[in-house]
Amino acid sequence: MHWVGGYLQIETIAKFKQPLVWTFHDMWGFTGGCHYTFECDRYKNNCGSCLQLNSSQDKDISRWIWKRKIRSWQKLNLTIVSPSKWLAQCARQSSLFQNYRIEVIPNGIDLKRYKPIDRSLAREWLNLPQDKQLILFGAAFTNQKRKGIHLLYSALEK
Length: 158
What we know:
The protein has helices spanning 10-13, 61-73, 85-93, 119-125, 149-157, and strands at residues 20-23, 78-82, 101-104. It is of the alpha/beta class.
């Protein structure tokens, strides 16, 4: 499985009888519903009083979702795969997956198809100037501080 949040019901995942390998691409699997927790670490014990929901109640919807997950997934025959050490460590610290096998397998690319080529040829193909220094920055939702656009602006000023 890959990114299933919102596509499969929590309880449906528990109905699979065969061993599962689930590749995490965000934090949804081990939280009460958020895909990125920012500074919140409540997923390490249980969710509730969700900062993203501006909730001050322990028994909010994030706790309800977290309880559905822990109730449904405690007997899964599951291996978790993470493309990053950071996300794997978060999953290991979570109350939902601390006892599961968690492996780090970086995203792969086909090195026969994607390989370095001559710089001037690449610039010609992409219609980029041959004599300028170029910077590439890519991120979805650059308005989120964690994406680092503020670091790019600071670096460009220097």
